[in-house]
Amino acid sequence: MGGVTNLALYGLTAPFAAALMDRFGIRRVVAVALAVIALGSGLTVWMTAAWQLMLCWGLLVGLGSGSMALAFAATVTNRWFTDRRGLVTGILTAASASGQLIFLPLLSWIIETYDWRPAAVTVSLAALTVIPFVWLLLRDHPADVGLKPYGAQEFVPKPAPVQGAARRTIQVLLSAVRTGPFWLLAGTFAICGASTNGLIQTHFVPAAHDHGMPITAAASLLAVAVVGVFDVVGTIASGWFTDRYDPRRLLAVYYALRGVSLLFLPMLLAPSVHPPMIFFIVFYGLDWVATVPPTIALCREHYGDDSAIVFGWVLASHQVGAALVAFLGGMARDVFGAYDVVWYASGALCAAAALMALVIRRRSVGGVRALA
């Protein structure tokens, strides 16, 4: 239950965190978020009841990590760059996978060698260690150090703090829902969450085990897809492509290829690992977070100054899609006795997402309120 709460807050916190960054600055929000993560992780050492796990890991760590979610990357990119925004978004997004690639093996070794408590303390200490660097080195805006945004022709003064962060977050949502691109972006990103965190991350291991594959082998394949180097490479490459090609067409290609791969997955599952399965895992790793840079680019194109908040709400739809398919996938497995219908249905959803991406119109405005 603590993990579910954590995932839900990871998505729901993002739009409010983006507005708080406009109100109090990136540095303060990130520093406080790291402190909250350190507190939540550290307090788990003394927990003795289930509600304490939900409070510490679900609420505190969920709020902290959600405040530094992908909306953080969108905010930093919007303020500091006018050129190479796609590439920068890809690099910042890939940093999350890089962190997992570094810390998960270390934490797994600590848990296996000692206990889970030293691992929780390690997370807490790591978060505390970063705070001084954030406070000393991170700046809210290029104007703070007398610089122009990268690629800008003129100096951009630092904007005044935007009051009423919570109210603004809700107002942006109410304005965005009256526009077609928001629903198309939220729908495609919900399918993204459904076909990654909700589907593969949740159900790939039990599905492979149903076909006789050892759990350790299936889990290793999943780790390669989710936190492997292919995830990092695919996300950075997607950012590079976003700077050069129509982000709508990129999304259509990503979702279409993802859907085709899911249609072939029932034929690839077997008791042992073979080359076609490795190819599927490598492809899924490359495509895992590749949708983020073009989605942020489209939010920026349609919603301007409000794009980070709008993307925060789009990210919330990602988590909703993941949660729904995680639940419905397990239910379908119980009803039909196999996962085949889940793979085919998810492939059809990805095809729908590809079509949705193509019908997003091209438009550039100053903010969501201009559309309203």
Molecular structure report:
By secondary structure, the chain is mostly helical. Helix content is 78%, strand content 0%. It is built from 17 helices and no strands. The chain is globular, with a radius of gyration of 21 Å. The two termini are 39 Å apart. Mean pLDDT is 86; it is low at 364-372.
Secondary-structure class = mainly alpha
Shape summary: globular
Strand content: under 5%
Mean pLDDT: 86
> Roughly how many Å is the radius of gyration?
21 Å
**Oligomer state of the chains in this structure:** single chain
- Number of helical regions: 17
Based on DSSP secondary structure assignment, what is the total number of beta strands? 0
Largest sheet: none
Order of helices and strands: HHHHHHHHHHHHHHHHH
Q: Would you summarize the structure shown here?
A:
The protein has helices spanning 2-24, 26-43, 50-67, 70-80, 85-113, 116-137, 165-176, 180-198, 200-210, 215-227, 229-242, 247-268, 275-287, 292-303, 307-336, 340-358, 368-371. It has 372 residues and is mostly helical.
Q: What keywords describe this structure?
A:
372 residues; mainly alpha; 17 helices; 0% strand; globular; disordered C terminus
Task: Give the helix/strand layout.
Layout: H1 2-24, H2 26-43, H3 50-67, H4 70-80, H5 85-113, H6 116-137, H7 165-176, H8 180-198, H9 200-210, H10 215-227, H11 229-242, H12 247-268, H13 275-287, H14 292-303, H15 307-336, H16 340-358, H17 368-371
